[in-house]
Every structure is written in structure tokens, then in C-alpha cells.
Amino acid sequence: MRITEHPILDFERGPEITIYFEGRALRAYEGETIAAALHAAGIKVLSYSHRLGRPRGFFCAVGNCASCLVEVDGEANVRACITPVRDGMRISRQRGKGDLRVGT
Amino acid sequence: MLRKTGVPTDDLLRQVTPSEERLRRGPVAIFECFERIPCDPCQHACPTGAVQPFEDLNDLPRVDHQLCTGCGRCIQACPGLAVFVVQEDLDECSALVGLPYEYCPLPAPGDVVTLLDRQGRAVGQGRIKKVVRPGNRGETPVVWVIVPRGLAMTVRHIRPEGENRGADQPTGGHHLPV
Amino acid sequence: MTSVLEPEVAVVGAGPAGMAAALAAAEGGADVLLIDREHRLGGQLVKQTHKFFGSSDQEAGIRGIHIAERLGERIRQHAAIRIWLGTTVIAYYPDGVLLAEKAGHGLVKAKPRCLVVATGAAERHLAFAGNDLPGVYGAGAVQTLMNVHGVLPGQRALMVGAGNIGLIVSYQLLQAGVQVVEVIEAAEEIGGYAVHAAKIRRAGVPIRTRHSVLKVEGDSCVEQAVVARLDEGWKPIPGTERVLQVDLVCLAVGLTPLTEILWQAGCRMVWVPELGGHVPVRSETLETTVPGVWVAGDAAGVEEASTAMIEGELAGLAAAHRLRPLKEFDERCRQLRQALAELRAGPLAAKVRRGLARLEGGTC
Q1: Close Cβ partners of C101 (under 8 Å, ≥ 6 residues apart)
Q2: A8 to chain C: which residues are within 8 Å by CB?
Q3: Residue A40 sits at the chain C interface (C-beta within 8 Å)
Q4: ipTM of the assembly?
Q5: Same CATH fold, C125-251 and C4-122+255-358?
Q6: Looking at CA atoms only, how far is residue C230 from chain B in angstroms?
Q7: What pairs with residue C138 in β-bridges?
Q8: C363 confidence band (pLDDT: 50, 70, 90)
Q9: Of the candidates B5, B80, B36, B38, which has an alpha carbon nearest to the alpha carbon of residue C304?
């Protein structure tokens, strides 16, 4: 859910773009973070924990805690909370530790 | 007690309430500021010098109520949103309260609102007399609301009618689903 | 092969302390590299919609977001300040090289003559069952969602912690249209300023001291929280449990300085709980025990943005002075240290004063 009226802030959102989460197309705005865009679409579960498979979301939202790691365009361990969305970005939940791409 | 509840006690309020004589004379500012924190914008905002110059930045504001005209600039200037203006004698049955209000939607003159006390309890209904909208979003809007006589030192917040999200729930911004 | 940039002064962190340091160093004649892992300047200031306290000379009455805009504008206009955004410093080597990961560029290096560490502090978590459920967020995270991205963090919130951050974020939740069902605080008293508490009390938000959260439950997200009253030994009192229907549990339970770079540099670090954890020993002008490395802001001890800006100016000035002696240095330092002392003089700053006193060779 997005805030449309605020007593102090004007939200200048960038151009509308399309991102994909687990294959599903979502509206997002250029310049916002993956975590924000997903949250706005009602998606709070970003991954599942390694051992017990418990749902995980973000916690600190500033890139410190590593709670929000997702897979983006095939790359693992991307911090959803500080990474800006791009048109056409494909995001999926990370299950387990994720494979680091070799040779980049 | 203040540090346990966040609500000023009657004792503390007595310390910042002007004399009966002054209260009856016209609008006057009530500074509900009870803690020594480093802060002095009220003194700079006051156009009549009613707020005395600070010796130490942490001092509580010292207010000469005889110099205060109840203009309300202090309401807007206070970063703690802790200043109010009361006019006990608006007419035979009403008083007037000026209070800071940083929520959406801003009420409009003529609107009927629920009146809340310092603990957020509804104490009656009032009508908006005037809303001072700031020039920019950096400033705090000031709402002037007509309240039943006798409630000027009780009413410290308003809730627009129809903005009820459950008993005693606060108002806030609007939002739409994505 | 990565080339190594050699600025005279590097400032890591572009929050209030870092921005102030970069400006002061540049005004002092140094060429400056300002680094931040976010894609914008401002640090946590960009989320602060409330009006600042302090003296009218120091941005009192201005909202944090506007202070961030002003400082950011001055920095972008300054010819002597180069900015690296989206850049996370990951190491500081004994030869003085800073290694960083710059979004879109891979690894980059800088070897500054002077370093100012202004990396701020991180939110603490709290141990309770269900604390890993989506919907349990740090207060800062909630602010980021609401105030930076305009996204509603939830509909019904429980705020854990009644320090300034808990109280202020509760107010901001109300402004965003979120219901704050309750604010709880484990200590006997509200930690934040009474005026912040008063604002939310008159909006109908209850504040319960000597309360804590026992557990949070929900299928894939927070659906309810169980709170209880605590006895004088900080233990939950059986029979006082209450279930709150909330979809957001916001933790405002303290911050810890982010000090990895200082440890890597070999600075002498001391455990000072009043300042949030391990902090570096520093001189009156905020130089650490490693010559050429200064610290400023929450990284030096958790405090406020107002003190962060003054400390940043002090550290930046000191770094510039080390490179080229400035004739106004002594007087300006005296003024800045006096301003810090004033901000720290009130009763609510007692904890910070105790913390600073604990530090050997502590300042102010």
C-alpha cells in the first residue's frame, strides 16, 4: 500500500516501471528500493531461512543486517533494502545460501 | 509522573498557567514545556518579547503573560509541539484553543471535530474557527478550535469527525492500495 | 588493475556528521572524497520529518529532511568534494588503503592522507519468539519505508521502546495513517523527551512502561503480539499477558555504533554502554589513537543529529588543519566544543555525559 497524502512529505516518485517477483509482474517506481516496491505490493516475505525454512523479511532497511537477501537477475545475496529497482528486473526469493556467480 | 506517562500533572500545569485575571483578559500562550532540553526557537519567534531571552539553551521558557498577545507564533515555532493558546472568554458559552496540528487531512473552518484531552480521551465536540496553513511543509499548521466554555485548559488535540478507526484511535494520512 | 584515488581527506559516511566533516575539511582547504553506501547523501536525516531542537543558530525548528537537503546542496556545489555513492567501504588496510565496493564498478580503492569515520550506528534487535517474522522491523526501517518511499509499513503497529526514536517514529506512523496500538517500554520511565510522549498520548496512543513483548505470532507475517508487564527484576509477571492484534512490531531498542573501520585501523576501542557499545578513544578534536584517523557522529557514541553535525565539523576542521595549519583553528574548536557542551548540559543528556566521562581522555 502506498501513502498518497502526507502532512509533511510530497512523494516524488520516478517513472513507473515493471519488475517481476517470482514471475509475477508488479508496478514499481524507478528510484525506489526492491524492498519498498515489494512491500508496496503487499509482499513482505523475501526469503526463507536456511535450516528451518522460516519466512524472512527485511529488518534494518539500511544494508546492515542481511535479513533481506534476494536473488536478482540470477545474482544471489542482493540486499533488497538498498538496491534500486530497474525496469524489467527479475527478483526471486532466495532459498538457502544462494550460489555466488563466479567470474564477475 | 511525567516521565512515566508522558502526560503533564496538574501541579506542572499550574506552574505554566497564567493568573485568572490574565486568562479572562484574552488569548494567552500556555507553554507545556517542563523538561530542560537544549531548545530556544520559541524565544526567537515571539514578536512581543513575552518569552524572555534564554541564559542557558537548556532553560525552560520564561513567559511574561502580560506581554503575550496570544498571536500563536510560538505554537508554530515549537519543535516539541508543546505550546497552545487559550482564550477562555470567546463568548458566554465558548472558549478558543489554538493548537499545532500536523496531520492529514487538515480541517477547514466550520468543520465539527471531536475534542481530545492530554490523554487522547474525547471530552466533547468543537468547531474549527480558523486554520493557519504554513507557507511551506517545513512549518507547522495551527488550528483554532471553538470549544465548550471551561474546556480551554483541557482540550489539546482534535479528531475530525468521521475519521474513526476504532475507539480513541488517532487520525493520520490517507492511503490507497497499489 | 584498480587505480587508487589519493584524496587529502576521505570521509566515510554521508549522514549529518559526514556531510559536516566533508564541508569543514573542504572549507579548510582540503580536497575531499565523501563516500556512502546509499545512493544519496543524508544518512538517517532523510527520514527525519520532525523539527529539530537545539539553538536557533544550529538548525533548531528545521526538519531533518530539509537539513539534509541544504547540506547535500552545499556539498554537491563544492568543487573540492568528490562524492562516491552506492559505495560500501569494506576494509581499511595497514598501508592506509580503503577498499570499497562501488555499485556498477566493482572494487575501488582510495588512499587518503586523513580519514574521518562517520559511519553512524545500527539498530539493535531484541530476543523473543517470532522475532524473525516479516513485519518485525527496526524503527529506522519503518521510517525509511514511510518517509523515503511513501510505502505504508503496516496498518496496526506495536512500538517497542519509548526512547526518542520510539516516540518520534510512533508520531510519524500516525502521520502516515498507521494506527499505533500501543508503545511499550521495559524500563520504569519513558526514555525520550516528555514533549514527544505528550504528542502521541494526546492522539490516544497508550504508553506502558515496565512492559515488554513476549512473543510475536503469525503464519508468514506478524499477526499478533503478546505483551506483559515486568517486575522489578525485569521478568514478565504471569497473568499480565495481553494479546495485541498488530501487523507491525517496530523495535526502537537502541543503537550500536558501526565501528568496523576503526577496529581495522587499530584504534583503541573501549566498551561504553552509555554510548551504545564499543567506541574509540579520542582527543578533544576527535582524533582516535591512530594518527590521521578521526571519528564523528553516532560512530563515536550514539547521540543526536545535532551533536553529530558539530562533531563532524570539528573532525573535518581538525583534518584540514593537520594538512595546512588554519589560523582560526583554535577559536573555531573552542566554539564547537562549547556548542557540544551546551547540547549535552541538560538532565536528559546525563547518560551521554557519563559515557564520555568513562572514556579515557574523553571529550567535553
Answers
A1: C87, C88, C90, C107, C108
A2: 49, 63, 175
A3: yes
A4: 0.93
A5: yes
A6: 14
A7: C251
A8: very low
A9: B38
Of B17, B141, B117, the closest CA to residue B68 belongs to B17
* Structural domains counted in chain B: 1
| CATH 3.50.50.60 holds for C4-122+255-358 | yes
Shortest CA gap C339–chain B (Å): 10
Q: How many CB atoms lie within 10 A of CB B46?
A: 22
Q: Report the gap between the CA of A1 and the closest CA in chain C (Å).
A: 6
Q: Could you tell me which residues come within 8 angstroms of residue B135 by beta carbon, excluding any fewer than 6 positions away?
A: none
Assign C246 to helix, strand or coil: coil
Model pLDDT, residue C348: 85
Give the residue from C119, C19, C25 showing the smallest Cα distance to C73.
Answer: C19
B175 vs A3, A7, A41: nearest CB: A3
User: Could you give the CA distance from residue B98 to residue B75 in angstroms, rounded to a whole number?
Assistant: 8
Distance CA C273, CA C266 (A): 21
Range with lowest mean pLDDT among B26-30, B104-108, B168-172, C118-122: B168-172
Identify the closest residue of chain B to A6 by CA–CA distance.
Answer: B173
Neighbours of chain B (3+ CB pairs under 8 A): A, C
Assess A90–C contact: CB distance below 8 Å, yes or no: no
The answer on pLDDT for B166 being more than 60 is no
Kindly list the partner chains of chain C, i.e. chains with 3 or more CB atom pairs below 8 Å.
Answer: A, B
Q: What's the average model confidence in pLDDT over A44-48?
A: 93
Q: In 3D, which of C248, C277, C63 has the Cα closest to residue C168?
A: C63
φ/ψ region of A63 (left if φ > 0, alpha if ψ in -120 to 50, else beta) reads left
3-state secondary structure chain A: CEEEECCCCCCCCCCEEEEEECCEEEEEECCCEHHHHHHHCCCCCCEECCCCCCEECCCCCCCCCCCCEEEECCEEEEECCCCECCCCCEEEEEECCCCCCCCC
Span C125-251: which CATH code? 3.50.50.60
- Domain A16-92 in CATH 3.10.20.440? The answer is yes
Report the gap between the CA of A57 and the closest CA in chain C (Å): 4
Cβ–Cβ < 8 Å for B31, B42: yes
- Domain locations in chain C? 4-122+255-358, 125-251
Cβ–Cβ below 8 Å for A40 and B173: no
Three cell numbers, residue C71: 547540506
